[in-house]
Amino acid sequence: xxxxxxWTNEGVRMLDQRLLPTEEKYLILRSYEEVADAIKKMVVxxxxxxxxxxxxxxxxxxxxxxxTSIADLEFDFKFMAKVMEATRPTAVNLFWAVERMRGAxxxxxxxxxNVEEVKQRLVSEALAIFNEDIESNxxxxxxxxxxxxxxxxxxxxCNAGALATxxxxxxxxxxxxGAIDAGKRxxxxxDETRPFLQGSRLTAWELAQDNIPVTVxxxxxxxxxxxxxxxxxxxxxxDRIAANGDTANKIGTYMVAVLxxxxxxxxxxxxxxxxxxxxxxxxxxxxxxxxxxxxxxHIGNQQLSPDGVDVHNFAFDVTPAEFIAAxxxxxxxxxxxxxxxxxLLATKRSAHAx
Length: 354
Known about the structure:
By secondary structure, this protein is of the alpha/beta class.
């Protein structure tokens, strides 16, 4: 089991994904500030993993609060939550996790006056979010695996595997693992996913670890391999899904969806229900993060572009719902019209709900 992030007595232990695939290094983050910085700098990435990390960061910060009353703890928590929410604005799981931790604090406050007990409950809530993410991905993988035919080649964009979640299974790669667990033969084509190369660095590394056949292509090869008949379906993850099914995912996903539509290839989105944002009506309301230009102009310390040129570095784009054949969640598979099917799944009780 790949352990992307975990709670330890020393602090939050996190696999530094910036160094993969050449170096497997774990960091011990000893404060909520360090956790927030790790999220912002993409030590950890992927919406579910960001949510889990944020919850653990808040639990860590709460336990280190020097306030002697619950009011003091609430004051500190409010500030820590703002810091955490400012790290990655597109990933809705981040805000979902912060809100859930806030709810746990308010519930504990209503039930006890002991500040240490409140702190412990926040740790328990963060661990519950971690464990539920693993269970959700297993359920999602089972639902999605049923959509993958035996002998299929699946194209995926970015990394939505164990590394993008609490660990173990993943979302888009969870669908692939679910199909394989059901006895199906599946191969993967992984877009390299410029500029951060999550596909060539992370997806390929994960699949190689599991001995799942994987071929890496550059992003601009996707249309060519589809035209050659080498792709049976596309499965991607998501950072936020609007109420109508419009989906924000890593930049380049929209391009892949358009190509899949042109070649009559089913395009699936895989994400837990926590990634569905019913308060955002359409993709027009999803904030799109812009990152440092250096991620485009350099790979590591190697400069690729001339000094002084303008750079766009949008981290995400939005794929309209009309391009999506189905949205695979941990509570079942949603199909058009998504406004109805996603709302229904959001109200459905999950297998691990308290």
